[in-house]
Amino acid sequence: MANQGKEEKIDYFYMLPEGCLAHSISYTTPVDACRLRLVASSVRVIADSDAVWERFLPSDYQQLISRAVPDDQGLLHYMLASASKKEFYIFLCDQPLVIDNGALSFSLDKPTAKKCFMIAASELQITWGDSPLYWSWKSDPESRFTKVIELMDVCWFEICGKIDTSLLSPDTAYTTFLVYKASGDLSGFKDQPIEISVGISGEDSMNRIVYLDHSVEVQRGTTTLPRRRGLFHRFRAKQQRPQAAVSQVAENRYPVIRKDGWLEVELAEYYNKDLENTELEISLREVKKLNWKRGLVIQGIEIRPKVVT
What predicted TM-score, i.e. pTM, was given to this entire model? Predict the structure, then answer.
């Protein structure tokens, strides 16, 4: 009777009802749920359940996907009818949906479940953008949008984009990016500083300087958005809102190569408070000499959750 007098340890975790366990896991994160599924096969079933992954989807995801362009509607209906909530979550992370007749794209950040958006070039206010002498609209099979805009020849570079902050996830730090690439005859951007301004319309915003010249040594980026082909082309903060928090890392002032092949340059950060309903304004303008520039192809301005390292 070697074990006499010793208390047998009871694992109360496995005594919880499945519904209670699923409810608890749903208050964690997608990363935590994926880790918990490795505990045991019985936990795996619960961690993968619709009850858990439905909570990770944004509360307005049904409304957002209803705004998808017609080319994506058939695939969405199929996914909603046949896929589990976890599969649908991963789908929204990996396949950005074009919504609002091509004005925006919507996706989810896989580790955090926060909403990501890209403002299409067609929705940006571009100085002289309506003149074919200076800018030209074209299709690009590597773009998620039907059209991109190419800089033909201009001496004053200025772009502005706006997005309703109510679309963004609340209590979330976001980073904004210009997504673009160079055509064969890019010129005029070498050592040319571009002033960035990101903040709420009508309020003070913080400025910073970036450079768009891709001839500097760029590093492979860490963004996870895939190339879209065929159908797929298509801290609650206890403080005042910082309008735009600027990273002090020098490298992010220059473009990096995304995994989808496009270039992106980090513009500035913005903290979206809970229940805000206003406009976030993002602008780029040159601040130095007025030299002629050409050869920039712009897909849009992306807003996605800040990566915490």
Answer: 0.84
